[in-house]
# Entry
Amino acid sequence: MSGYRNVITLILAICLMQAAASFMGVITPVGLTELKASETLTGLVGALYSAGFMAGAWAGPALLGRYGTIRLYAAAAAITAVCALVMGMVPGITAWGAARVMQGIGFGLLFASAESWLGQAAPKERRGDMMGFYYFLSRIAGLLAPFLAFGLSALDPRGLSWVSILLCLSLVTLCLTRLSEPAPPAREVMRALDLFRLAPSAVIGCFLAGLINTGTLALLPAWTSTFAIGGGGTGAAAWAAAAAAAGALLVQWPAGRISDRVERRLVVAGLSLFSGAAALALAVGATGFSEPVVLALLCLWGAGAFSFYGVSLAHAIDRAGPGRIPQVMSGILFVWAAGSVVGPILSGVAMSLGGPQALFGLAAFGLFLLAAIMLVRSRVRPPPATVAPEAFLPVEATSAGVAVPDPRAPDPA
# Structure
């Protein structure tokens, strides 16, 4: 457990930040529904947030190089907290859309700075295990956070104030960590094409995680708008989001540990097939199922859909080598955000044209496609070569961008 003790404060700080992001992910679409926004417009606001996230992830390495991890995290947390307070003070679709863009930038910088730090601190031989542990705790945060709005209108400023509280607590926790702050990386950003050449399987997995999961979650409150559980409204949305998060809570950590022993791409394929089957059941028979059965299927869907991103991310870090971890982490976040821009719009249009069943029909198609790609890629290219564990100790981390790609490296996966 010594490895966990070294990073637990950092993980708790990220989990508090994740709780704030999860809370906003539930309360924003519900609030937009109360503001009479259509499904397509709700999806568009979700895409605006993801566009901001892309910008934050893209700018992450340059800003980390200029200001350092802790100072950038503090500035981004403050900006994101202020935007939440503004949304409570100015309830309107235009104001919320503008605030969500800025929140996207803030959360992109928060994740880029904190997760790159964590990625450097995790040793190679336990990377899947430790990333799984991190995502396990973050799922608990994501499961509990939506219930902070329980019984409140999504437009109530008291609910949105919770975002500022969680971000402030996250910042306090991060500042108290004993883990040495990593050296500022070089300011160059890894191009998307270079990242794809380095680890195409990870890029595809993380892009589809953004497209499928963000698109589905953005419209999930609208999908549950007729549910009676939890009193309907924010209560029903909270129960649906919690059911999906509960599934990931059960699977995320074991999936990470298994991926340290089994080819990571095969683990992603298995998770995708499992989740795709649950999504297909929701698409075909949700209208005929009772609400408890729907919640159980959402739990099964979340178990796979929310777990393969962490395994894909570990695969990318395996390919990176210690010198390029911050750049690869920021690049992966950018790729995920690119999928998140497309996902809410695509899901909103699908739901508008095909009805409620189209939301999970689209998710099932994407998950089965991902499984097929991973199975093919695992046959085409071997897994990454083993790297000496000591190269990944945080005290040995090299500035990102200093290392030049080794021409002797194995073919990308």
